[in-house]
Design a protein that fits this description.
Blueprint lengths: L1 H25 L3 H11 L12 E2 L2 E2 L5 H15 L2 H25 L6 H8 L18 H6 L14 H19 L2 H10 L1 H11 L11 H18 L19 E6 L6 H6 L5 H7 L16 E6 L7
Antiparallel strand pairs: 1-2, 3-4
Helix pairs in contact: 3-10, 4-7, 5-10, 7-8, 8-9, 8-10
Pfam families: SLT (PF01464)
Organism: Mangrovimonas spongiae
Protein name: Lytic transglycosylase domain-containing protein
Amino acid sequence: MRWIKNVMALLGLFFVASIFVNAFQDAPTDENFEKKLVNDYNVYALQVPEYLEFSGEPVPLNNPDIYERIDRELLVNTYWQSNGLLMFKRAKKYFPVIEPILAKHGVPDDFKYLAVIESGLTNAVSPAGARGFWQIMKTTGREYGLEINDNVDERYNLEMATEVACEYLKKSKERFGSWTLAAAAYNAGNYGVSKELERQNVSDYYDLLLGQETGRYVFRILALKEILSHPDKYGFNFRDKDLYKNVPTYKVGVDTAVTDFTAFSEKFGINYKILKIHNPWLREKHLNNKSRKQYFIDIPKEGVYLK
């Protein structure tokens, strides 16, 4: 019977060895891990579209310099995936506010992408002091009728700021005869663009040699327009329910001072935080309003913020 025991022992050793070999083959070795990385994550060169336009004005993609510059912005913005997804989410929420105001002023719909690159569709603050979705400077805002002080800053009012952006863009278009140059002037200023056009003796944005920021500006707009218009083409996957929704509100007119916005909020069944989320242009916990100006405060419709 000893030989039977020896055979069983050998079979047992063989079985254990087989388990060890199989386990080793499936173990996350560097080789296996690298193979999995290559198979699961790929970075591709992107195909630049054969035709691109901004506000009906064609982009000269047959020019190798222009081709490389749009290719750069498509790559940078496609492979910055987290930021890209946030832009899709915010666009669903805020484009319905911006689009009808652009249409009312006769400003091309493409300019909503200018707000995307200016602020990422947030109430951003620049080092130079620009504020809001449209990054309006204090002097410009006041010139176009916005109230800007420590108590109220209407640059943070998306509807009012969009109105100002439209007026500015229309004046630039009238000056340059081109929506593309008007977009560039939104970044560099009308004077800055005029000076460079004259100095370089050209009349087209795509013929200008500009600094890094303004030189990339229109190309970034074009890239975001292309990506946000064709999510599947650039590898962005989401469902409609993944996107942010605009919270329905109604407006309450106020033509007196408000001494305490916490108490004011509670009258409408919300708290101070919710009031400020929907009215970021109210900069303090009270409203001075010595002039008895008529303000309109957005209040979320009942039940939106129920716990």
